[in-house]
TrEMBL record:
GO annotation, cellular component aspect: DNA-directed RNA polymerase complex; nucleolus
Entry protein name: DNA-directed RNA polymerase I subunit RPA49
Keywords recorded for this protein, A-Z: DNA-directed RNA polymerase, Nucleus, Transcription
One of the Pfam families matching this protein, by short name: RNA_pol_I_A49
Organism listed in the record: Biomphalaria pfeifferi (Bloodfluke planorb)
Amino acid sequence: MPTPTFEVDKNHENQSVKAICFSHGKLKDQEKSNLSIKCYKQANTSVSKASDVEKCIVKAEINSMTYIGKNYGDTDRFSTKTCDYHIAIFNKKSNKVKVIPAHLIQLEPWLEDKSSIDEVDTATHSYKQKKDALTREFGSGRSQRAVNKRLKNTMDEEMIAATTKSIVTVSTETTGTTEPVESVKTEISTIPPYDIDAKTPDEVYKLQTIIPPELVPSLTKESENFFNCKQSDVNTWRTEKKYYTTVLNHLDRLSLREDVRTSQCQCLLYLQYLMETFMMKAHQLRTKTPLPKEWPSPVKDQILKVFTLEIKEPNKKPKRCVPSRMKDLLLSYIIVLSLRLSQFTLPLGSLTTDLQLAQKRLSIHATTLGCTIKRSKGQKGGDALIAVLNVPLKFPEIKGKSEKKRIF
């Protein structure tokens, strides 16, 4: 087959296509004929800039299920501000490839909001609890499995509250405050600076608060290997296990824009440094120079200052350690950086493997950062957890211990 040639049609520069994908999986070939798609565009839209995108809503229906996707607002997972998307069309007759700009839209299941119904009719909710309890005690095996599966899809609120409460307890002990636990914010010392009034996920945890501007020059120089890497280099690093899997997975999909690609490489390198620090043992931190010599000096100073504690005693050598409070803060920075690199939809599988943490612990920590956890079918048949950062930002509430309600 001869090598195809690319052509650019200047008459169609302003044209673009809409490409859709599903948030929880791929569409089977036999179901494509049953798929109904409609696209609604905003009337009288005036595009002021070349970078502005025509707002549209895509609605898809299949097998009595409805999916909705938008290319604007907080549900836009493929923003064109950070990277461009194109679709290539290959003409077999002319042996030419035409490249057309594309806008990717993620479709998510649309479910009717029944919160207003639950607020009005509280008796229905209590009856459901009674019915679930009776089914789990006296129902058939099939009914019990159905109830257990439904309840499993909801996060354990008591565990989230207990984790959040423990974070606050450590923070109050450190600061010495005497305020009651309920009045103390959960994000005192284990959550990076955030904007509670953010309009988009990108504004919640701003990049300059995660990576200080004074570290950018040193990271730019050291991240040149990432910027100029090829697929063969990534494969070699993966075989040698030179970098963590989470970092290598993002190297496969770097942006083609020079400025965005540079920023992504800086974030990936800093993420590698943070993950290596997180995995260090206690005896490694007690050495005189705990961090590798090849790391930039400003980065080492910043990591030691923010994420470690130096203990000085009279007539003794200084000791360095990582208290649980700072360990949680370090994990928060790792999750936030990974969220930004994943368009704020982060599969937790590779992080759990790299950091050697239980998936449930990582998901609970992501929840304390304001994320919601979704479940999807994994490649090996098990459930895969996905952390999604949405706006408006909501943190889990600290709930006191409540007495168990009797069923009858």
